[in-house]
Amino acid sequence: MRLMAVFAHPDDEIGCIGTLARHAARGDEVLLVWTTLGELASQFGDAPHEEVTRVRQEHGAWVAQRIGARHHFFDMGDSRMTGGRTEALQLARLYARFRPNAVITWSDDHPHPDHRMTAKIAFDAVTLARIPKIVNESGGGALMPPAPDLSGDEAVESGEDVARLEAWREPVRFYQYYAPASPYPEVFVDTSETFEVAADVAGYYRDFYKWAWSAEQFRETRAQIGRLAGVKYAERFTLRASHLRAREYLD
Predict the structure, then answer these.
(1) What share of the chain is helix, strand, coil (3-state, %, to 5)?
(2) What confidence tens digit (pLDDT) does each residue in 88-102 have?
């Protein structure tokens, strides 16, 4: 299985980090994607743009390494995302290259506009990635940004920006952070086995940003979700579908 997590800023992924870690531990391919560099984080004060983006990208790289995933940053502009076609096309080209079976992203109703726009383009990109002429188009006189290289090298390989992409037409299951107003069915993932990894990631960000959110509070939020699902710790999502898949038997 190939699982992609698409978020706006480094630390947005905390809500699904146990799930990502569990899939990676099973041997699934996991790709963490951020649509912005998170350059407007207020905790950095007047630090230069280059320094802020360097640190934020280091954070993303550390998290990906901790859970056994790959990662990629886009630069769509912190708090400047529009949810438009150009942004969705960039993500669609990454879908065409990574070929995800499932995507996790933000809910549709989050107050932060970048979060809502990221959810929108993540959903739009599922359809755009299915159309060969779209994922390979160059746009109205301006070349599309090259699809990211997923070979492990940081640099885009020579000629990669002109390499033809194969459209990704397989079904993509679209998961979003749980929102009480969502019309879609809920899905719980048992993260008891990867809770400590998730706690490490939450602690990594908490220590850097000096959040008041304690380790005990993090543990209790996961435990509360776990109690709803009958396990020790869990994470909660909605699945953008009318109905859940059929199961063989009732629990």
Answers:
(1) 45, 15, 45
(2) 999 999 999 999 999
